[in-house]
Records
---
Amino acid sequence: MRVAFQLNGKPVETEVEPGMNVLEFLRSLGVFSVKHGCDHGECGSCTVLVDDKPQNACLMLMGTLDGERIETLEGLNARRRMELMQAAFLDEGAIQCGYCTPAMLLALESLLRANPKPDEAAIREVFSGIYCRCTGYVKPMVAAKKVALGEVDG
Amino acid sequence: MNSSPEKVLERVGKITRRVDGTALAKGKPVFADDIHLPEMLHLKILRSPHAHARIREIRTEKALKISGVVLILTHKDFPVHYFTTAGQGYPEPSPRDIRILDETVRYVGDRVVVVAAETLAAAEAGLAAIEVDYDILPANFDPEKAQEGNPVLHPETGKIDIHDAAHNVASQLEASLGDIQQGFEESEWVFEGRYSTPYAQQAHIEPHITLTWMDADERLVIRTSTQVPFHVRRIVAEVLDYPMRNIRVIKPRVGGAFGGKQEILNEELCAAVTLRTGRPARLEFTRAEELYAARSRHPQIVLFKIGVNADYTLNAIDMDILENCGAYGPHALTVMSVTAQKALTLYRSPHVHVRGQAVYTNLSVAGAYRGYGAPQGFFALESIMDEIAHALTIDPIEFRHKNYVTTGEDVPIAKILGEGREGFPVVIESTGMRECLEEGKKLIDWELLRTAEKSGPERRGVGVACAAQGSGIAGIDMGAVFIKMNEDASFNLLLGATDLGTGSDTALAQIAAEVLEVPVENILVYSSDTDMTPFDTGAYASSTTYISGGAVKKAAEKLKARILEQGLILLKEESGRIDNGLVLGSNGGRISYQEICTRSFYTENQTQLMATASHMSYDSPPPFNATFADVTVDVETGLVRVNKIVSVTDAGQVINPHMAAGQVEGAIPQSLGMALSEFMIFDDTGTPVNTSFRDYHIFTAIDMPEIVTRFIHTHEPTGPFGAKAVAEIPINGPAVAVTNAIFNACGVRIRNLPVTPDKILLKFTEPDL
Ligand code: FES
Ligand code: FES
C-alpha cells in the first residue's frame, strides 16, 4: 500500500508492506537513532514522536502512518532546546552506554512541549516508559530536572 | 587510610564529559547494527523446545523452498569440536563442553538449526517450516539431584576439563586454611545457615548483535557488540578452523553488557554463514532469546558455618557452594572461585574451609554477570553475619567493625583460591571499610530506623551489608595501549580495552591527559579493533581502570619522556622539564608540544613520537563497600517497598566522579531486581515462562527508591593514581541489605531469594529465628 507522512519535517511518500513495523522501516532508511530492544512495546528504545507524543515504533504498523507527523532525534538535533537537553545529559553524566539516550531525550522533549515546567513526578512518569539498565535513572533525572528548571547553559 | 604521595591532580578525579558522549547524545550511528551492508543475509536460530533430547532427523526441504531462504546449517555441517562460549583468557578455565550445533539438545533454547535468508521475515518463515524429530531424554532441573547422574548431560568422550561428567560436576574447588574442626571446637558460638540466590539476567538493552562480511582483501570482518574482541577472534578462528590472521573483530559502541557480552554467542554462526556464502550476515537476539538462551547469573546454594570467639571475632568459616551452571559450563569454575574468594577476603578468620561444586542441569545456561559470583556469596555471608549479630545482640555494624580486614593485613585465602588457577598473595594496601560504614550509618539514619517501633501493618526497618571485590584478575589480566602524538598536540590513544558504556574510554583518556599535562579533549581514544589496537584480555572482572589504566599511565609516561628528550634536542639544551604542554629548558629555552611534533615530523631529528606499554598485575586490590537499605514491609499484603538505598564505596582514587557514581547507581537496581522483581521461572518441563520484559520486570524510573552514593577517598599504591575498581562492587550489597532490613522491620528472615509476598506472609506468623 501507499502511505504519505511527514518525517522530521519532510514529506515521505512510499509503497510499503502494511504489516511492516515503523521501527524496521525507519532503520532501513538509515534513521539509526531509533533503537531496537524488545519488539514488544516494553523497553521504549524505539521511541519516536508521533504528533508530539512518544510512541513505540516497534508496535506501529506502516499502514497506520498515513497523514502522521513523525519526529526522531535526527530532526531535532539542531534545535536549541534539544541542544540544551543534550548538554545537560552530558554535563550530569546521564549517558552511560547511550543506547536509551535518544528515547529519553524524545520523551523529555514531548513532555516539555506539553508542559514547559514539569515537576519530578511528571518526568519520572515519562521516563518510566523507557528502560535504562545502566544509570538507575538517577543522573537522567538530575539532568532532566535541570532542563525543566531552565538551569542549563548551553 | 593512606595519604596520597602524588602531586595535585588536574584531570584525574575531575568531572569530565564522556569522550564519546556527543555522538551518543545525538543518536549517531555508533552501535554494531547502525550500518547497512549490501546483500546482507538475516539469520535466525531454531531452538530446542525440549529440555533434553537427541535429534533423530532434521528435514529442511520445505524450508529451503521458501522464497528468500538461502542457507540452512545443522550439526551435520560442522565437524565435532568442543569449545567453551566463555570469552576468557587462554587456556580457558571453563570446561570445553559445547559444539557450535549439536545433535543433542540439553535445555529449552539450545541451538538446533540456523537459517540464513534475504529478509528477517523469510528467515522466520524458514524456521517455521523446518521439521525436527526428537528422541526425548530424561531431564533434571534440580541442582541438588544433579550428582545422581540421572541423566548424565555430557557423556561424550572428547569433552575437555569436565571435573566429573558421570556425576554432572562441571567444576569443583576446595581450599582450606588452618584447621577448620579445631576452629569450631575453640569457638564460643557456632552458627549455621543455608542461603540461595536465583537466576538473574543481565538485561542490557542492546541485544547481542553481530554483523559479519568479507572485506576487499577477502578477510572476515566481525562487527559485534562484545566485551572481549580478542577472545572473539581467537575462538572464532578455532571453532571454524579459519586462519586468525584473516579475521578482524571490530567493537563499536556497546549498548550495555554487564558480563552478558563476555560470551561468544552469535559471532561464530554469523561468521560461518559469511564464509559459506561470501555474503554479509546479521544475527541479533530477540528479547526472548536474551532472557532464556543467552547467559544469566549462576543460581547458588551456599551453606555457611561460622565459629565466633567470645570477643565477637570470627574464628572459623566453613563455606559450601552448590552452583547451578545450567546445561553447559561457561565460567562454572571461575564464578564459583569468585564467590568463595571475595566472600572470604572480607573478614579475617584463622580457620577457613571452602568447597564448591558446579553442576549441570537441563536449564538455561549461566555465565558472567556483573559481580561474577560475588553477589551470591555476599548474600549468604551478609545474611549470616546479620543473623549472628542478632543472636548475640550486638549491633551489626559493630560486629563487622571487629572483623573486616584492615590495611597491612594479608589475605591468605586469596593465594590459595585464585580464579581458575592458584592465586597470588594479597596484602591489603588500602581500605576505607570503616569510613564506608560510618558514613552510610549517618546517611541512612541507622539508629533511628533500627530502633523505631515495629508495629502496625506497615513496618519500617533498616539493614546493612558489607562487600569486597577485586580490581582485575591477579596474574591473568593484561592490557596494552599505543599512544602517538600529532602536530597539534593531540594524541591518538589506541586501546585494546573495551568501553561497554561504563565510560572507561573517558577514564583512560583522563589518565593519559593527566600524565601528558594536556586537556582531556587532546586525547583521541580509539577502542577496540583487533587490527588496529593492541591486545587486552577484555572488559571484565572490574579490570579496565586498574589494569588498562596502568598500561595507559606507563605508555603516557614513556611518551612524555620522549617528548622531553626531543624537545631538549630541538632547544639544544641539556636539561629541562615539562610544564603544561611546554618543554622548558634549564637555560630558558621553551618550546611547545605543537612545535616539537611539527618539527619532528618535517624538519629536524625526524621521528614519530609514540609509545606503547602493557600492564598486568599480581595484585588485585579489593575495593570495599557498605550498602544500607531502608524498607517498609506491609505485613498484611507481604509487599516490600524500598524507600532508600545508601551505598558508600572505597574505590581508591576515583578517576571520574560522575562515572563512578553512575556505576553504583546502575548496579543498585540490578541487585534490587534480583531480590524483588526479576524472576526467571521455568515450568515442570524446563520451559521458561517469562520471556519478555513484561514478565521479567527490571526496575523502571518509577520503581526506583531514593539512591544516595558516596565515595571514601583512599589511595591504592598499586593502582594508577591510586585507583581501584568500581564497576562490580556496588552490586554485591543491595539485595542482602534489603533482606536484612526486612528482618529488622518485621522479624522475617528471607534466606532464599527472591523476596515474594508469600514468603513474608507465610513466615510472618512463624518467624524462623
Ligand atoms: S523495541 Fe520497541 S519498545 Fe522495545
Ligand atoms: S545508558 Fe545504557 S541503557 Fe541507558
Note: Chain B has a mean pLDDT of 94.
---
Amino acid sequence: MKAAQQKKFFDSLVEVIRKTSTELPDDVVRAIDAGKAVESEGTSAKYAMGIITDNIGIAKKKSQPLCQDTGSVLFFIHYPAKGTDYDAMTKLIRKAVATATKKGYLRQNSVDSITGKNDGTNLGPGAPTIHAEPWKKDFFDIRLVLKGGGCENVGAQYSLPDSRVGAGRDLLGVKKCILDAVQQAQGKGCGPGVLGVTIGGDRATGYLNSKEQLLRKMDDKNPDPALAKLEAEVVEEANRLGIGPMGFGGKTTLLGTKVSALNRVPASYFVSVSYMCWAYRRQGAKISAKGEIVKWWY
Amino acid sequence: MVVLKAPFTEEKIRALKVGDMVEIEGLVFTGRDAVHKWLSEGNAPPKDEVDLKDSIIYHCGPVVMEKKGSAKGGGPKKKYVVTAAGPTTSTREEPYQAGIIERFGVKGVIGKGGMGEKTRQACQKFGCVYFHAVGGAAQVLAEAIKDVEGVYGLEKFGSPEAIWKLRVEKFPVVVTIDAHGNSLHKDIEATSGAALQGIYSELKK
Ligand code: SF4
C-alpha cells in the first residue's frame, strides 16, 4: 500500500471501530425490538427493554459508546494474499485502536495482567486480538466484535460427559449444557443475550469458534439441519426459564443462539459457550485495496 | 412507577418492594472496589464532603470529562461532565456491602447483577434496598445525571474509582432486593432452576 492508501485504510479502520461501538447492526436491533414486543406492559422486563432501546437510539445519535465497557477488541480479518504487507496492516490496525481510544469510541480498557497497569492505549499483548487470514480476493474483509467483560465472565466450557449437568456425549447432552450455561448466567451477562456455541474442537479452538459464531446474522439459517433445529429449540426452551431481561423475570432470556461443530479427538468432547450481552457490538466492512470502505456487511 | 426523592428516609425505603420500577431524584455517590475496601478498613470520608448517612451508593465507574468553566470569583473552576455511567457488577462488593450499610446507615445501593445473602440480610435489618440499573445503558443513565457536584478521593483512588457526587433526575432502576427480606435474584434463581429441571425431564422422554 502506498502512503495515501495507508491513510485511507487507517481512516476506514477507525470508522469501523466507531460504528461498531456506537451502533448496533439492524439484525440485532430487530431481535431486540421483537423481544421488547413480547414482554407484557407494566412489567420490569418491558421497562428494561424500553431503556435498552432508548439507549441504542441515544448512542447512535450522539455517536457515543453504547455501553461504557467497550470490551475486548476482537478483529476477524481476510486480506488479499497478493500485495498485502501483513506487518504494515497489523500496525495500522493497532494505530487505529489507539486513535479510536483517544477519540472516546473505546474506553481505556486494557490492563497489564501482572502489574494491573492501564496505559490508556488499549494496546498490549493480545490487545487488540487480530485473527487474520489471507485469501485470493482483491479486497479486505474486516469484521470487529467488541465483547464486554460482564458477559464474557458468564461464558462456560463443558467437558462431556458432565455428571453435574447429567450431559452425555450427544446432542441432547449438548443442549443440556447450553441451557445450564443460561441458567447459571442469570441476569449477570446483561441479558437478553445471544449465544455462540461450538461443539468439539480443543479447548482453545472451541472457544474461538464459538466467538466466530457471533459474526453470523441473527436471522441466518444454519446449513446443518440438526444444528438449525438445536438452535431454535435452545432459544425456545431458554425463554421458558423465566430469567428475562437483566434477570428481572420475563419472557426474553435469549435473543438467539448460533451453533457450530468442529471435529474432535475421540477422547475429548467439549461444548464451548460464549455469551454475548444485548449490547451485541459487531460490525464489518468490505474495504478495497485502495483502503476505502465499499460496503458494510451488517 | 415510583418516584423516590431525596432525602432517602428509612420510611420511604421500607415502602419499596421487590419489582418496583423507580426513578431516583437526588444525590448519589459512586463507589466501587477501591472505595468499598477502603471504607471496610475503618476509613471514612469527611462528613462535610461525603455524608453517607441516608445515602445511595452507585456501583459505577463513570467516564468523566473535565471541562474548564469559570467560577464567580473569576478564577478557573473545574467542571465535570459525565459521558457514560452504566452500573458495574455488584457481587464484587458483597464481602463489604453489609458492613458499610450498617456502619454508615446507607439506604440504597445501585448496581447490576444483584447481590448475595449477606447484603439481603443487611437490607432487611438496617432498612436498605438494592436497585438494579439496566446494565449497558450507559447513555440513558448518563442523561439522567444532571450535574456533578464534586468528587472525593480523585488522587487516592483514580478517576473511575473515586467517589463522584452525582445529582440525578429520573434515574431509572428496579428494586431487586427490598428491606423486607425479599430478593428477586434469589427467587428467579430458584424458579429458573426448577424450570430447567422440568425441561431436562421433558428432554429425556
Ligand atoms: S455485559 Fe455487555 S452490556 Fe453489560 S456492562 Fe458488559 S459490555 Fe455492557
Note: The pocket of iron/sulfur cluster is lined by residues A 67, 69, 71, 148-151, 189-190, 277, 279; B 86, 135-136 (CB under 6 Å).
---
Amino acid sequence: MSQESDVLVEIDDVYKYFPIKQGIIFKREIARVHAVDGVSLKVRRGETIGIVGESGCGKSTLARCITGLHPITKGRIVFDGQDISNLRGRALKPFHRDVQMIFQDPYGSLNPRRRVGAIIGDPFDIHGIASGAERKRRVQELMELVGLNPEHYNRFPAEFSGGQRQRIGIARALALKPKLIVCDEPVSALDVSIQAQVINLLKDLQDELGLTYVFIAHDLSVVRYVSDRVAVMYLGKIAENADGEELYENPRHPYTSALLSAASIADPDAAERRERIVLSGDVPSPIRPPSGCRFHPRCPKAQENCVDVAPDLIVRGGDTASHLTACHYPVEAAENLAVETAAIEQLSTEPTLPSA
Amino acid sequence: MSLLEVRDLKVSFDTSDGLVQAVRGVSFTVERGKTLGIVGESGSGKSVSTQTLLGLTAGALIDGEALFEGQDLLAMSDEQLRRIRGKEIAMIFQDPLSSLHPLYKVGKQIAEMIRQHESDVSKAQARKRAIELLGMVGIPEPGQRVDDYPHQFSGGMRQRAMIAMSLALNPKLIVADEPTTALDATVQAQILDLMLRLQREFDTALIMITHDLGVIADLADDVLVMYGGKPVEHADRRSLYYRPHHPYTKGLLESIPGSTGAKTRLKPIPGQPPSLINLPTGCAFHPRCEYVMDRCVPEEPPLAAVNDKDGFPDLGHTSACWLPREAAGLSTEVERIRQEAVALGRTTGALGSTAGSTVVDAGEAK
Ligand SMILES: Nc1ncnc2c1ncn2[C@@H]1O[C@H](COP(=O)(O)OP(=O)(O)OP(=O)(O)O)[C@@H](O)[C@H]1O
Ligand SMILES: Nc1ncnc2c1ncn2[C@@H]1O[C@H](COP(=O)(O)OP(=O)(O)O)[C@@H](O)[C@H]1O
Ligand code: SF4
Ligand code: SF4
Ligand SMILES: [Mg+2]
Ligand SMILES: [Mg+2]
C-alpha cells in the first residue's frame, strides 16, 4: 500500500467518445470520435509526467478528463484516494481546488476586458477564500512568484506579451495551491527564446511548491527536458510509457522511434548523420481507427498479425518493469527502422520522381 | 549574376498606432539551386521581407532593390509581377488552406494555374500534368484524388498539394514560409524530406523561412538571422551553428532544450522581442543582451565580417554587433565584456535562479 499512496492520480482504462450526430429534430448518433480509447496511467506525487503525440491523438481530451472538464465515457479516475469519475456538481468542488489547468493559448484563455488582478484573483472569489485588501495582497504575491511586476495589477491582458500572458495563466492556476497542474501545450504558442523562460518558471515552482504536473506537448525535446516519465499517445491509446531518459535512449515502439527521428536537431552534423524514419501516410481518423494495432497502416514493421490483434501495453522482453510498450514486434537496439518495409501492403506516399 | 539579389530592402506600414518598421534594411542573395534559410522570432520581418518581393504586401511603404535575374521586382508593374509569380517564383505558405480555394477541386486548381501561364496547354493535358504532379509529391492514388476538394485532404496532403502546385511551372525559386509549422512531427519530416528530394531533382533555389533553427540545420546552405526587422547575422550553415557571433543567435541556439546537456537549467533570452513602432536605440537587441557595452545603446552596429578560426575576417560570415570579431564567447576579451556588463548592472541580466526574481517590466514590451 505504501507505494500506492505515492500515486496522486490513477487513470484506469479511461474512454472518452464524442458522438457525431445527424438529423434535424431527432438527432441520431451516426458515428463516434474515439478521442481517448482505453488509457491507463499513474501520476506519482511530485513528478512530471509528459504526454506526447501528434495532433488529434487525444492529449487535450485526456487532460480535460483528468481535470474533470469532460465527463468520461467509461473507466475510472482516482484522485488522491477518491474516485472522482462519477462525482457531479458540488461534490466536485474540493477536487476543482486541487487540480488546475494551464492552456496553450495565452491569448484565448484570458478575458481581454478584465484586469489582470481580477483574472488572477477569480479563484479566491469563486471559493470564497479572500476578498478586498487581503485578496489584492495575495494576488500580488502570486504575480511576484511568477515573475510579473505586482504594480501591473490593474493592467489588461493586451498590455502584456505572450510569455507574460502565460505567466498570468500560471499565477491564476496557482492561486488555490493545487496539488496537480495539467499543462496543455503551455509553451507551444511562444517564441523559442520565451519558451525557456516559462519552462524554467514551471520547474522552479515545482521545486518550491512540490507540485505534480501532467505536461502535454508535441515537442519531444521540451517534454524530455521537463518530464520524469513520458507517455507516447497514438490515436487515443498509449503506445509506449517509460521513464524519460529510457524512452528517449531505448524506444521500443516503432512510432516512438519515428517520432524521435523526426524531431528537428539544431546541429548540422548531427542532423546529417541521423537517418530519418519517414513514415507513409497521415494519422488516420479517430472516427474509424484502424483494426488491430492502430499504427499498422504506417508502421515499417507491420505484419499480418498486427492487422487483427491489438497489442497490449505491457513490459516487453528485456525491459525494466516501468517500461511498457504496446507492440507485438518491439524495436531492437541495433535495428534500423529507416530501411525496413512492412510485410503487409500499405498506402505509399513515396514521391514518384520522373527519373526514378 | 545571382538568381536573386535583394539590396537594402525597407518595408514599413502606416498604422493607427504609428509607423510599423517591419523590415529595416535587409540584403541577401540566392544562388541557383541553393537554399537560404531565414530564421527569427515571430514579428521579426521574415514574411514581410519575402512577400514584398512578389507584391503581396498591399499598402506597404517599400524602398530598396530586388533583382531577379537582373530585373528589379520592386519596380515592376502588377501585370509583370503576376507573370513572374508562380512561373518563375512560387510561394508555399504555412497554412495551405488559405491558398487553396475551398470550392474547386484540387486537380482543377493545379490545372488552371498551368493553363493561366501556358495558354497552349489543353485542358486534358493540364489535368494529366496535375495527376503527375500529385503523384510526384507522394499523394497516393493521384488519379482519384485529383478530383477531391481541399477539405477532403488531410493537413499533410494539402501541403503536398501546395508543393505540387508550386512545382507545376518549374519555377527557378521557391519561397517556403514556415511550410511545416502547422504540421505534426512525422508529417513535417515527410514534407521536408520531399522538398529536399524535389529541390535536388529540379535544381530549384529555395528560401526557407522558419522560427525553428532545427528545421533548417540540414537543409540550408546559408542562414540569415533576423531580429527586429534587420538581419543580425548571416553565414554559411556550419559557421552559424558552430561559431555564432551575434549574442541573439547564440541565445537562440542555447535556449533550445537539450542544447546545454540533458537536465541543466535552460538558458532563456531575458525580456521580449522589441516593438517595431518604438524600437530601442542603437543595437535593437541591447535591452536583452548579456554583453551590452556603452556604445551599444546610442550606436547601431553595421553588419561586418566575423573572424574565422585562424583569425582572418571571413567575408561570408557577417554579424551586426560591436563585440570583437571572434565568435562570441570564445575569447577571454568577450567573456570579460560579459562580466563587466553584469557587474555594472547594464543588462536586465540572465533571468535569476528563483522564480520570484524574474520580474520583467511589461512596459518594455510595448
Ligand atoms: N467536443 C468534441 N466533439 C467532437 N470531437 C472532439 C471534441 N473534442 C475533441 N474531439 C476530437 O477528439 C480527437 C482528440 O482531440 P484532442 O483535442 O484531444 O487532440 P490533441 O491530441 O490534444 O491534439 P492537438 O495536438 O491538436 O491539440 C480529435 O479527433 C478531435 O477532433
Ligand atoms: N499589413 C500590415 N500592416 C501593419 N503591420 C504589418 C502588416 N504586415 C505585417 N506587419 C507587421 O510587420 C512585422 C513583421 O511581420 P512578419 O514579417 O509577418 O513577421 P514574421 O517574422 O513573423 O514573419 C510585424 O510586427 C507585423 O505585425
Ligand atoms: S504491433 Fe505491429 S503494426 Fe503495431 S507497432 Fe508493433 S509492429 Fe507495428
Ligand atoms: S554586444 Fe552590443 S551590439 Fe552586440 S548584440 Fe549586444 S547590445 Fe548589440
Ligand atoms: Mg490539444
Ligand atoms: Mg511569418
Note: Chain A has a mean pLDDT of 90.
